[in-house]
Amino acid sequence: MRDPERHSGMVQGHDPSGGRPAPDAEAAPGADPVGMALTASEHEIPAVQYHLAQFLADHLSDCCQVFDGDLEQALILALLWQRFVGAHHMAQIDRDKASEMVWMPALRLSDAVGLPRETVRRKLKLLEAKGLVLSDASKGWALAGDVGHSPGNDRLDELERRMRRRLTRLFVRLRATLGGA
C-alpha cells in the first residue's frame, strides 16, 4: 500500500505554510484545529466524520463533473499543483531549487497515485492537450500557469472557487463542532 506522506511529491521537511496557522485559525486565540480534532470526545466524532464526508463527497462529485468522470486526471493535477505551490514557497528561500521542484517524472507520479505508468502518461497527455500541464523530456511534467491562479481554464477557476468555499465551510463547521468557535 502506498504511503501518502512519502509519495505526495512535496519536499521532505518543507512546510509551505512556514508553520503559520491558516488565517481563520487565528480568529480564535489558542484554537489549534489539529489538537481539537485529536481530543474530540466520542460524541463529537460522528459529527466530524459527517462534515468531512460531506466535504469529500461534494468536492469529488464536483471534480468528477469538471473532469468528465475522470478523477484520475484530477488526482494527477492535484499532485502537480501541490509541487507547484511548494515550489512557490521554496522560491522565497532558494529560487534555483524552486524552479526544479515544479517538475515531476511520470514514473514518480505513477507511484504517487498508484496507477500504471502508461495510464498516468495517457492522463498527462489529456491534461497537456487542455493546456493544464507542461512536459519536458529531461524533467518530467509540471503544472502550467501561475501560482494563485488556476492554469488557463475557466472550469478550473470555478472549481477552485467552489473548493475554497467548501473548505471554509468545513473549517467553520469543525471548529463549531469541536468547541473552537
From TrEMBL:
It comes from Rubellimicrobium roseum. Residues 18-33 have a biased composition (Low complexity). It comes from the Bacteria. Residues 1-33 are annotated as: Disordered. This is Uncharacterized protein.
